[in-house]
Amino acid sequence: MHKTIWFVIMMANLVLSSCGTKSSPVKMGVTTRSELVAIKGEPLRVDSIPIKDGELLVFSDEEKFQLSGDIVIHSFRNPKGDESLLIFWKHKFKDCLTTVKKITPLARSHTSPEIEYACPDQGLSVIYPEGSDSISRILEYEKK
Hints:
The protein is of the alpha+beta class. It contains 3 helices and 8 strands, in the order ααββββαββββ. Helix 1 (2-19) crosses helix 3.
């Protein structure tokens, strides 16, 4: 009986925490560079990327925003709290047509393959190492 109650409490907590996630004030495909800086403050650094008119603005906690010209098109961040659990995202994406794709590392890279679990309708993907259920990063992009 005690184990059942504990399980119910843990599941309720997971459901409530997943329903309570806030959407970012940064809207992919809409927010401009100046609006991003007004929301997030000055970036710690700006990296060039091999995309025409593209750059990567890096903020605290390694939160990154990719720009194409003056418009934010992607964000990358580390998971926080329950977001680091694959089960959290399976619940969050339960009503979404999801895709699962293996990301193969570059030939000269020493990293192992990763999996991208995506919900295009929400404009979200999560990345985790193959064979694991711990999320390593979260990607946000323009909703389809």
